[in-house]
Amino acid sequence: MQRAGSMIAWKPWARMAGLALAVLVIAPPAFAQKPKAAKPAAVPTTTLERIRQSATIRLGYRADARPFSFRDESGKAAGYSVALCTNVADAVKTELGLAALNIEWVPVTLEERFQAVQEGRIDLLCGADAKTLARMKEVAFSTSTFPGGIGALVRTDAPTRLKDILSGRKPASQPNWRASSIQVLQTQVFSVINGTTAETWVNDKKQEFRLSSKVEPVDTYDAGVQRVLDRKSNVFFGDRAILLDAATRNPSAGKLMVLDRLFTYEPTALVFARNNDDFRLLVDRTLSGLYASGQIEAIYTASFGKLEATTLAYFKWNTVPQ
Fold it and tell me: What does pTM read for this prediction?
């Protein structure tokens, strides 16, 4: 009896032990180590780091700034600045040791081009942008790529007096030439493109000489040329190289002329984000290499014609030595 009783007394404890064991088997261990979360990939902080990570370089270009940058008949980016940027892309590929580098051409408008650089939507802007101190507060510029400046387009049948004034030719027989010139300019209508240095320059001159001349902004060079042809504007001010190209391509080219005079001297350059020293160095090294080797001559000639001695000297002066 004693033996049977001891067996009966043991059963509840056995049952409890079994339940506890089942709980331990079913329930997850209380102190099991949680799996470590995957460490997020480092966010690239520089242009070269982003390009290395994505194997893609994003080149922005304006489709309406021929011969610097434009969209050709096949829909591809073309022009002088586009060719320079293509050389930069090749240098990036070599510098980063990439087996392949995808070039993504991103069209940008005149109004948004600098914002696209600031927001990182493009790595390099390949256009016709003058390097100014005001703009350097927003973006960074490469070494100069072209000796640009503001020029003037008029009709070939424009009054000789107006063409003489704009060209800076002073008649020896008129001691009050300046005063009479201002009187002539008062009656003119000028056109400029919105958001360009030409617009700023014309408005500054209006204020300086207290001119009441009208200024009619346009959105494109073709629109500005058409206003002159239609006699809605007497003078169209803009980048002289672009004016020459636009006038030459126009079906009514015989009715247009671009004056020889440069009203300003504005170095054109490629544009990229500020505080990007490694990328700046690579861009400037690439451009200086093109200038020093003489390769710039073929690139220049394809867009602007023969490379004059003065322009060649300009490139030499803008070559940064190794």
Answer: 0.82
